[in-house]
Amino acid sequence: MTPSGSFAAFCTAMLFPTLLGGQPVKEIDWKYEINLMGKELAQRHCDLFFQTDSATFFMSAAQIAQEADAHSLFEISVKLQQLLSRMGDAQTRINYHFNIDPGSILPFDCYWFEDGIFVLRTTVPFRELLGKRLVAINGYPLQQVVDSLSTLLVKGNPYLVRAQLPAMITWSPLLEYFGFNGPEGFVLQVEDGAGALTTATMPLPTKDEEEIRVQTDHLPLGWEEPKTFFRDQYFPEERSYYIQYNRCWSREVEETHGSGASALFMPSFKEFEKKVFQTIKREKIDKFVFDMRFNGGGNADQGSKFIKKLSRASFNGDGDFYVIVGRETSGAAIINTYDFLSQTNALLLGEGTGGKPNHYGDVGRFVLPESNLVVNYSTRYFTLEQEEVPFITPDIPAPIHFREYVKGIDPAMEAISDL
């Protein structure tokens, strides 16, 4: 599911108020602003020109600056993101989405299943879209839309595209930028299981309407709490212990590496770890499952220390390790995946990862002074494989289809049960 529009609106309004109707674009000296961005990135990034030479980068940046007067702030930010995506580091980017008015976000959420992109949430006026596969927007085939939006992402990893495209499809300014808008708004065409087509027109600005979601028997295990930092569940019949690790962060990490201000509102990993080892000591465990499908990273040290302790733990049972990864697994979660591979007999299941084994990380950021655009950049390169590969390939593929999602079937957990 895509993030809540209301939350995005809050963050945008609180952190970057000038982006929502403050400083006029004409007052921004884009030549200075874009030149500054290039110089700062070249100086701060650990190896900005590892894929594209500096002359090509600065020439492209200068061309954007030269044409800036003919474009809006949002359009310029998108052009800059396209430029940064060509540099090859997924962590180095412009946060152009901060510049999207919440009222221009189309009222639906979708997910890219193995059999297509399906609508999982919308509002009451568009209920006919629920549970159907998206095939076109304003008459443009979905693949054409995907190809255009993908220019904002680093090439070479289809799982990264699957992770980020569903949210991007709902951002109408982005669709307009690529010319997919229509005179009456946005006409979505969807297809049901029998191949019957349905269309619905979403006018702008969007209205605050009651939300409805796809009805499921129950959610697949991995989808029950994807936003929770970490959680556990013991299944006595299968003698399996499931841990979902969605954030490489906690109260303790926030106190050490963050601002500390939000620490009290975060769960304690120290307390969670104590509970885990009490469960290991108390219960019979043949299968230890560690799920990082929704883990986009953070600080790897917490997980690394935990995994080292697990590798030395004495299980009352076989204690075989199973690690689930997927399209959103990146950053510190990639490092923790290799911790399991190097220290245990772990078997990998799921999808290919959104992050690369050898990857840039330890992200810093700066704000351009006139446009208030936020620029992220990497300060460190992590080498986990001798050869460069675009993603981690699981030992046992376990992608999810829409019909499995509706029935509450988690393919990765099903595969583990069968082993």
Task: Estimate the helix proportion, in percent.
Answer: 25-40%
Please describe the biggest sheet, giving its number of strands, its sense, and whether it closes into a barrel: 6 strands, mixed
Low-confidence stretches: 1-25
Strand order, largest beta sheet: 9-10-11-12-13-16
Count every beta strand, where a strand is a DSSP E run of 2 or more residues.
16
Summarize model confidence as the mean pLDDT: 93
CATH C-level of the largest domain: Alpha Beta
Class by SSE composition:
alpha/beta
In percent, how much strand structure appears in the residues?
Answer: 15-25%
Total of helices: 13
Task: Explain what this protein looks like in three dimensions.
With 419 residues, this protein is an alpha/beta fold. It has 3 domains: 5-95, no CATH class; 102-213, Pdz3 Domain; 221-355 and 391-418, 2-enoyl-CoA Hydratase, Chain A, domain 1, CATH 3.90.226. It is 33% helix and 20% strand. It has helices at 5-15, 30-44, 54-66, 73-85, 142-149, 158-168, 172-177, 251-257, 269-282, 300-312, 332-343, 402-407, 411-418; strands at residues 93-94, 108-113, 116-123, 133-137, 140-141, 186-191, 197-202, 211-213, 230-235, 240-245, 287-291, 320-325, 347-350, 359-367, 374-382, 396-397. β6 (186-191) and β7 form a beta hairpin. It starts with a helix and ends with a helix. Residues 1-25 have low confidence and may be disordered.
Secondary structure layout:
Blueprint lengths: L4 H11 L14 H15 L9 H13 L6 H13 L7 E2 L13 E6 L2 E8 L9 E5 L2 E2 H8 L8 H11 L3 H6 L8 E6 L5 E6 L8 E3 L16 E6 L4 E6 L5 H7 L11 H14 L4 E5 L8 H13 L7 E6 L6 H12 L3 E4 L8 E9 L6 E9 L13 E2 L4 H6 L3 H8 L1
Parallel strand pairs: 10-11, 11-12, 12-13, 13-16
Antiparallel strand pairs: 1-15, 2-3, 3-8, 4-5, 4-6, 6-7, 9-10, 14-15
Helix pairs in contact: 2-3, 3-4, 10-11
